[in-house]
Design goal:
The chain has 324 residues and is of the alpha+beta class. Helix content is 40%, strand content 16%. Strands 4-11-8-9 form a 4-stranded antiparallel β-sheet, covered by helices on one side. Mean pLDDT is 91; it is low at 316-324.
């Protein structure tokens, strides 16, 4: 209904049950919403717990290595006391290129090829891409943030930064892409750091906590400064050890990843069930005239908030150019 407008909408015919039946329908659906909201709340709490477990495993591996018996030394990094003695310390700007120039991909502009487009909602808090859009290069060349496959992106605006929005673009459908101006793009220097190891460092809780403290801007529009990210101190193992750490983490967190994905699917399914139930009840396909509320049908307006979008999926207004 591409031409839907107020006049067209007001002229649409509807079925209207008697007022007592309307009230019964509303009461029934609110009771079902209460059950569904409690289900979603429990599932979100499980995801949060599993994510915390993953983070604990990841932080241990990328700051201390895999061998607890390895000789340690002082790190001289404020947020980390000791590191393996053979690791080096540096800043992120020494191992990554920030916001690479789109001029390297001028050929795509000339051909006006289709490229991937990533609004903030297209990347999850654990770095997965979902519902990636396709747009013509000419539509997004100006005014959006440029990146290539295997770059790392991170959200810079609140609350997306705090929630960990971002990750490695190793599954980007096209060679290059564009996205929200609220991304910072990092490209790993291949002789220094693996892209996946760089993405893992940016997922650390301490990085998000310190970045949140460094944010600037008006309330609700605060952003982590690019200078904070560039000057964030890290401990860097040799490339072969980075590979071993990444492989070990993939195995060590596999169980949590499976359960998290399954739990998210369960939330999606219960939302689909709710949509179908509402449609069936308000159109009379399900008769609720004889329904009576039970002791478990108590409706808590506060609890119903769980029916909203996941708080980690916060997005932002997209304006301005993404180049730094």
């Amino acid at each position: 209904m591409a031409n839907l407008n107020p006049a067209t909408l007001s002229a649409l015919p509807i079925t209207l049950p008697p007022r007592p039946e309307q009230d019964q329908i509303v009461a029934y659906l609110r009771a079902q919403d209460a059950h569904i909201a409690r289900f979603i709340k429990v599932k979100r709490e499980l995801i949060k717990l599993l994510t915390e477990q993953k983070q604990t495993i990841i932080e241990g591996a990328v700051t201390q290595g895999l061998d607890a018996a390895t000789e340690k030394r002082d790190s001289d990094i404020g947020w980390m006391m000791h590191i393996p003695a053979h690791w080096e310390t540096c800043k992120l700007k020494h191992v990554a290129i920030f916001n690479p120039s789109r001029s390297e991909s001028t050929a795509f502009r000339l051909s006006d090829a289709s490229v991937s487009f990533l609004p903030m909602e297209c990347i999850t808090t654990d770095g997965k891409l979902q519902r990636v859009e396709n747009r013509k290069t000419s539509e997004v060349w100006e005014g959006y943030t440029y990146f290539r496959r295997n770059d790392v992106v991170m959200a810079k605006i609140t609350p997306c930064f705090e929630n960990g929005k971002g990750g490695l673009l190793d599954t980007l459908p096209t060679e290059i892409g564009f996205g929200t101006t609220e991304f910072i793009v990092l490209r790993a220097m291949e002789r220094r750091i693996r892209p996946a190891f760089l993405a893992t460092l940016l997922s650390l809780r301490i990085f998000r906590a310190l970045g949140t403290d460094a944010m600037t801007g008006a309330a609700g529009q605060q952003r982590v400064p690019l200078s904070f990210v560039k000057n964030f101190g890290i401990a860097l193992p040799p490339l072969d050890e980075q590979d071993r750490i990444l492989g070990a983490l993939q195995t060590a967190t596999a169980e949590q990843d499976i359960i998290i994905e399954k739990t998210r699917s369960e939330i999606a399914l219960i939302r689909e069930y709710r949509d179908r139930l509402i449609a069936d009840v308000v159109t009379g396909q399900v008769d609720v005239r004889g329904w009576q509320p039970g002791p478990d049908d108590v409706v808590d307006d506060t609890a119903l908030a769980a029916l909203g979008d996941d708080p980690e999926d916060g997005t932002e207004a997209e304006d301005g150019d993404g180049d730094e």
